[in-house]
Amino acid sequence: MEEKFVLKDKFIKQAQEISRGAELLPGGINELAIKLQKSAESGKPIRVKLGMDPTRPDLHLGHTVVMKKLKKFQELGHTIVLLVGGATAMVGDPSGKSETRPALTKEQVEENAKTYFEQMSKVLDTSKAEVVNNADWLHPMQLTDLLKLASNVTVAQMMTRDDFAKRYAEGKPISIHEFFYPLMQAYDSVAIDADIELGGTDQRFNVLLGREIQSAYGKPNPQMVMLLPLIEGTDGLVKMSKTYPEHCISLTDSAKDMYGKLMSIPDTLIVKYFSLLTDISDAELKDIEERLKTENPRDIKMKLAFTITEEYNGTQEAENAQKEFINVVQNKGVPEDIPSFKLESAMNILDLLLELGFVTSKGEAKRLIAGGGVKINNEKVTDTAMTVDIDNLPKILQAGKRKFMELTNG
Amino acid sequence: MEEKFVLKDKFIKQAQEISRGAELLPGGINELAIKLQKSAESGKPIRVKLGMDPTRPDLHLGHTVVMKKLKKFQELGHTIVLLVGGATAMVGDPSGKSETRPALTKEQVEENAKTYFEQMSKVLDTSKAEVVNNADWLHPMQLTDLLKLASNVTVAQMMTRDDFAKRYAEGKPISIHEFFYPLMQAYDSVAIDADIELGGTDQRFNVLLGREIQSAYGKPNPQMVMLLPLIEGTDGLVKMSKTYPEHCISLTDSAKDMYGKLMSIPDTLIVKYFSLLTDISDAELKDIEERLKTENPRDIKMKLAFTITEEYNGTQEAENAQKEFINVVQNKGVPEDIPSFKLESAMNILDLLLELGFVTSKGEAKRLIAGGGVKINNEKVTDTAMTVDIDNLPKILQAGKRKFMELTNG
Question: Is the per-residue pLDDT at A1 higher than 60?
């Protein structure tokens, strides 16, 4: 007689904790809870897939959303499978139309993957993860294999993918080979026998296709997917991305930069950042939501900035960053230890800002001055044609809230 | 100084003769004439591609339209490249949805190709043709090669192909792998360096894609295409095809069958059949068109039937077939030598017709009787329940215009 499967509360609770802020498809919390319970009962760990794009190895806080989830699975004894997209990276975009898909050599892929893992190891134990490269099974595929793979998906189905649908409707070209990227990514799930795949909400189509292709290749319990929200950059408007470096917090940012940038986020992002970027418990998160109703959000934001800065730069660095932030921004003071620059001859203010690396273009320098963001000895600079002379040195040049330079004569 | 290219009348005339009844794309008669002249001047033969589907090796007159064109090229010293679609045949339809694309083994492909060539050699000199199998270059293709190939065509472009557009509009599924068949066929043109590709008008999209893919792979003067009309079956309604065997004339049909079937075509097809299925000159064709205005079309049709029957069955057989046709159909007589069948016991007429192989189903037998097409001793059978008894044997049973059997008692 077949035993009746009774889902235990313990695993529902586990599933809820793991998936905080995330979307589970297609079966929701219960499907994950069942997987967790069956794994516990059988002693067979769940295989958790994460695909990585080795063309962009520089990680920012946005990437840690998914890593935090992996860490939770890892803590429960499950297997993390980190998939390096070597095949696709090495193919690049054969049409040469996309700059975001440059073709990489095998060495570049490996080098990038190494950098990726180093940064990742700040969040989870990469030494315990399985690391695989899809070039191993995708590159040797021949015509017959690829046609078999492609036969499982229809054009109409592929065209439901947001970006394809949009481009097709707008009359913008979609090359046939682009259909293969989702197919290859989906086949990866077959190759590594994934039970659950994690991805950003922008990966919805691709990761769900993985489930379908696993079914087509005969996997009885195909993968479910966990979709993670994309986190906004510090401006609270667009998703965090290297494209907007001023709103992007890199894992390699200094404690001071990280703390300062986190303090600049809009209050509306506080809970989301706590929820997705820190390890605080659900109870603590609830407490924060309560406190936000009565307390000054700035104080709670400082706790957020400290928590995250501490995780990536250590307690000491985080404390220093916090101290300096209070001194400079809150007390409008000048930080204690600021670097100095020997001003050998008079210079135009735009050239000087550029020279010091405070801006990346003269246009940015002009905008900064126009916004009142540039001061010399605490007096706003208003004229972009101003010459900073070498009289009365040293002077303190300030750009924005957190960049200072002592201009000296030697 | 560059010499000016002057196109000679001789080659325009050659191009016109070769392409009688066909469509030349993209440059029309002149593009072909230029190719012919340049070939004559350089001594480098034109490479003429014809793709063959080795899944259906049984040839009928419809297939000879394109073969006649190949023959003309061959007579002018050009190179015929007969392409066996081994790769696609061996792949079949991996989705298993199409019955017209069964997967064949290498041996089946070779066996079918052999049969194909044997029949083809009735029209042209296959021993002088280059025979290639696309499995040789398509099967070893790997991911990178295939993506490169696919990157040259957009989804929108692929969807302009008639059948894809139609199915997409009707909400019928198109599997992604189906996009690869035209791509592979187009790549064949790269592999064999074709200068012109021949195909039926239903191949318009595929053969034109060959030109485009050649360009993408860097061929300076990519192939032009010659589209041949699909010839109607003997009913004059739908294209000749094995699907309607009663209207289809196989190259292996007996002289008698071939002659009889040709005599059954509607008068409106006479010129088209002469033009596309025989080797008569343009002058003769013109003469026939004139004669049709005044003479009995039957006499001209007899010339057509004789010409074609003679080509595939020899003069003697064609003469016999003609003699018998005149005797049986025109003089309403019974042919001189008819086969006999020993009728051992009384039989229902439907069963008897089926037993003799005059019909393939009782339904067909009933329709034949209803149409007055079945006679015993020249008297029409009207009752489908009739019993043919064994009294007064021998009797002559006639089905349709050309099937006779002497029923005997021993």
Answer: no
- Give A242→chain B minimum CA distance, Å: 28
Structure tokens that stand for B244 in this block: 């309607």
Mean pLDDT, residues B204-226: 95
| Rounded distance between C-alpha atoms, residue B79 and residue B49, angstroms | 9
Spell out the residues 6+ positions from residue B162 whose beta carbon is closer than 8 angstroms to its own. B205
Position A173: which residue type?
A: P
Question: Does A164 contact B at CB distance below 8 Å?
Answer: yes
Reduced to 3 states (helix: H, G, I; strand: E, B; else coil), residue B293 is helix
Q: Are A240 and A61 a contacting pair, CB within 8 Å?
A: yes
Residue B1 in this model has a pLDDT that exceeds 70: no
- One-letter amino acid for residue B304 of the chain: L
DSSP A365-406: HHHHHHTT-EEETTEE---TT-EE-STT--EEEEETTTEEEE
**Closest Cα partner for B130 from B115, B117, B140, B118?**
B117
Q: What CA–CA distance (Å, rounded) separates A395 from A387?
A: 13
Considering only CA atoms, which of A268, A256, A338 is closest in space to residue A305? A256
Q: Are B213 and B189 spatial neighbours (Cβ–Cβ below 8 Å)?
A: yes
Inter-residue contact A190 to A251 (CB < 8 Å): no
Peptide bond connecting A26 to the previous residue in cis, omega within 30 degrees of 0: yes
Q: How many residues does chain B have?
A: 410
Decide if A176 and B179 are in contact by the 8 Å CB cutoff: yes
3-state class (DSSP) for residue B154: strand
Contact call for residues A297 and A267 (beta carbons, < 8 A): yes
Cα A312 from Cα A337, distance rounded (Å): 22
Eight-state DSSP code of residue B362: H
pLDDT at residue A93, as a whole number: 64
Q: Which of A147, A168, A158, A165 is nearest to A205 (CA)?
A: A158
- Chain B residue with the nearest C-alpha to that of A183: B176
Q: What is the rounded CA–CA span in Å between residue A275 and residue A20?
A: 7
Q: Binning pLDDT at 50, 70 and 90, where does residue B254 land? A: very high
Tell me the shortest Cα–Cα distance from B400 to chain A, in angstroms. Answer: 47
The answer to whether B258 contacts chain A (CB < 8 Å) is no
Shortest distance between the Cα of B147 and any Cα of chain A, in A, equals 5
Structure tokens at A348: 């135009």
Q: Tell me the residue type at B352.
A: L
- Strand-strand pairing, A224-228 and A196-200: parallel
Strand A379-380 with A374-376, pairing: antiparallel
**3-state helix vs strand vs coil in chain B, percent to 5:** 50, 15, 35
- Asked if the C-beta of B177 comes within 8 angstroms of chain A's C-beta atoms, the answer is yes
Q: What per-residue confidence (pLDDT) applies to A246?
A: 80
Residues of chain B contacting A90 with CB distance shorter than 8 Å: 144
pTM: 0.76
What residue has token string 């406190």? A291
Residues composing chain A: 410
Interface test with A, best of B137, B151, B166, B170 (most A CBs within 10 A): B151
Distance from CA of B329 to the nearest CA of A (A): 53
Burial of residue B97, with CB atoms counted within 10 A of its CB: 0-12 exposed, 13-18 middle, 19 or more buried: exposed
Per-window interface: A 81-120 vs B, CB < 8 A: 87, 90-91, 93-95
Question: Measuring CA to CA, how many Å separate B332 from each of B163, B236, B297, B379?
Answer: 47, 24, 19, 13
Helix (H, G, I), strand (E, B) or coil at A339: coil
DSSP A157-222: HHTTSHHHHHHHHTT---BGGGGHHHHHHHHHHHHHT-SEEEEEGGGHHHHHHHHHHHHHTT-SSP
B72-113 pLDDT, tens digit each: 999 999 999 999 888 877 766 666 666 566 677 888 888 888
Per-residue pLDDT, averaged over B280-299, amounts to 93
Q: How far apart are CA A247 and CA A379, in angstroms?
A: 27
